[in-house]
Specification:
The protein has three helices and 14 strands. With 188 residues, the chain is α+β, with helices and mostly antiparallel strands. The model has no long low-confidence stretch (mean pLDDT 89).
Length: 188
């Protein structure tokens, strides 16, 4: 049985507290993130939003914003997927007005933060799917390894660690993010 976005919307009406994605006709109920992973997502999103908003460069959203992705054909079957990265950025000219619904586009930047129970290969698979569909940059943050990996289509992933700085001149000229700024502080 292959489900549709309409089926997903119906399930969300019946279960408004569930966060779900539609992947290849299957509904995936997303598990809650661990505290540290969510804090890292918020830290990334806040630093990005603080740069983007005053310059009116685009829109930054969190893990609840769903994207209806372009048709993807696998095994001679065409399906629509609805996915929600942990953090997303869409350039202003691509989404001039916000919507009270899922948006039918791919973000220019998408970020996944590995939670305690997530599998790296599944997160990489999700990032690579977004890249194939038109996302310019995908980022995977791994709190266990204290790394941030930058993915771009047809390029080798670039791993950054503490002491290094993330630069995204293709999308955000002038923006810099010290990798060490992502990790939650320890209050003593």
């Amino acid at each position: 049985m292959s489900l549709t976005i309409t089926d997903l919307e119906q399930l969300q009406q019946e279960h408004p507290d569930w966060q779900m994605e539609l992947v290849d006709g299957n509904i995936i109920v997303m598990e809650p993130s661990d505290y540290e992973s969510d804090e890292i997502s918020i830290r990334f999103a806040a630093k990005l939003w603080n740069w983007v908003d005053p310059r009116r460069l685009g829109r930054v959203t969190g893990s609840s914003a769903g994207f209806i992705l372009p048709h993807l054909t696998t095994n001679n079957t065409t399906k629509r997927n609805l996915r929600a990265p942990d953090v997303s950025f869409v350039l202003a000219h691509r989404l001039k007005r916000t919507q009270r619904d899922f948006v039918e586009l791919v973000p220019d930047l998408m970020v996944e933060v590995k939670s305690k129970t997530a599998q790296i290969d599944k997160l990489e698979e999700k990032i690579k799917m977004f890249l194939r569909l038109g996302t310019v940059i995908g980022i995977l943050i791994d709190p266990d390894q204290l790394t941030l990996t930058v993915y771009q289509l047809n390029q080798e992933p670039k791993v950054l660690q503490d002491g290094e700085v993330l630069l995204l001149p293709e999308l955000l000229p002038g923006w810099e993010l010290a990798i060490s700024d992502l990790w939650p502080p320890v209050f003593e």
